[in-house]
Fold this protein.
Amino acid sequence: MRFQQVPFDAFKTTLAGYGMSEAMTQGVVDMMVAKSEGLDNSQPRTAQATSVTSFRQWCMDVLRPILQN
């Protein structure tokens, strides 16, 4: 699995191609823009606010077995 950043206008076009309304596609794009601009960084990462399981470890333990089936 890999991550590939897609331009927001292309993402919006894709969503519209799936039949989403203009209002819904704009709402999803607005949310993605906010996340890209740091919305998820409002809570500092501390030992108390961070899971002991890394995202990479979760992918190996949970996601990988699902994708291998």
Observations:
- Residues 56 and 63 are 10 Å apart (CA to CA).
